[in-house]
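Running this now, will post back.
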Amino acid sequence: MVSTRAALLFGPGQDYKIETVELDEPRAGEVLVQMKATGLCHSDEHARTGDMPMPHYPVICGHEGAAEVVAVGEGVTSVAPGDHVAMSFIPSCGVCPPCRSGRAYICDLGAKLFDLGMITDGRVAHRYGDEPVARYSQLGTFSEYQLLAESSVVKVDRDIPWTAVALVSCGVATGFGSVVNRAEVKAGDTVAVLGVGGIGINAVQGAKIAGASRIIAVDPVEFKREQAVRFGATHTFASLDEAIAGVGGLTAGRMCDAVICTFGVMLGNLLEPALTLTAKGGTCVITSVAPMVQAQADVNLFMLAMMNKDVRGCLYGSQSPRVQIPRLLDLYRAGILKIDELVTKTYSLDQVNEGYADLEAGRIVRGALVY
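Update: finished.
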């Protein structure tokens, strides 16, 4: 049994509480890791606000992480003690039909993401006293140590800083991939990014690296618009209405080849303005998380069909994490992809509530817990 300090969420609307949790030793197909850094991603806030109700509380949130392997269970072959790893909030088993077809970002093991038991054998392996503890996306990176399935970790080179490894494991991969993989942006395209938080800022970077000629960042927070320019935005607007009017003028009415929705929360009434920004034959990518009860969206179906527009969902940047994470770290190492600059402020585990208060107030692009 392993004891660890972790930030527990005991119910929606509550603050995190730092408590001691007991973990099993690793069994077959499992790894025990010591967490080194984890990003404060807005997706975890959906668990706290209730937009994404968790099936079980208490839960350890956090899914954007970097760690060192401490021990491995029987049959683990991809990592060994001492290896550095990035977390993968979508596991990849390598044998299901999506994995075999190169789409590990929708691996069938994703059906177990919010199970209380381990991915490997279903047992409860995390406890707070006598109470079972869940983990967000089967990860729970807001913890000093964590027991994970081998399918949830990706080995990375040891020379990469911990915070860079952590951010690539979710925010960078998701935002970058939304543009490059899902929207398939090409050199010369016009791209709009709606919401410039930790995901959106990396969509801006993806558009720049892909060679977009115009990159429009839309966010009501002035600080985030300023940061978007640092990362490659050519134009910024404070609202969707301003963007629709401004982009029309910039493009002689043609609008954007790609529109990436990275709002803090995706709501149904935001889709039609996003489609208004989308050009004929263009692509609108929905990356934002919506409340689970959001079952309707505003869409002019006549214009959608007659203008030949695409609406695409996007999970994890639409590329296998075992492919995407090393590639992005290579771009970082080459100085092409900015990651260090994403971290506005670092926090300790005990400051997790302070970090999310800063995120909610728009004072940071990305915060990171450093252990």
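The chain has a mean pLDDT of 95. More later if anyone needs it.
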